[in-house]
Amino acid sequence: MRTEEEMFDYVEDDAEKNGYYLCPDEDLLYDLIQGLVENEGRYGYPSCPCRQSSGKKVYDSDIICPCEYRDADVEEYGMCYCGLFVSEEIKDDTDKLEPIPERRPPEIVEAGIDADKSELESTTSEDIPVWRCKVCGYLAARELPPPICPICKAKAERFEKFEFG
Question: What is the CA radius of gyration of the chain?
């Protein structure tokens, strides 16, 4: 498990690599970093501290920070759902930090909450579909295709089920 300093370095490095900034509100930034560390300790992965996690990685893979919705949120609203990653405009004007709509489909949340432990224990990696981006070839093993390709930014409809063989 990472320390708060290590988590900060992780998200700061990711922000820089992707052209984002970290939350300009220092108190909120500290709370978000602390939440990521707590969730990593609790679940084994740093799920978004502003969303409900099921504690089952197969259902939470879309909200492991940085979440799959970040790029679309920052592009449209200038910040991600929790406000950890922001655009330059938000960085320069903290008054623009405000709640944004949730992109995460409710059926993903409900599936994770409704799944019982025996169902998950019987799930193998072969049961989880693999999605291939038809634009760049990116592969993602998860229940549903990513809403946006993290490599080329293609939308979910540009993904197809990938068959090994």
Answer: 16
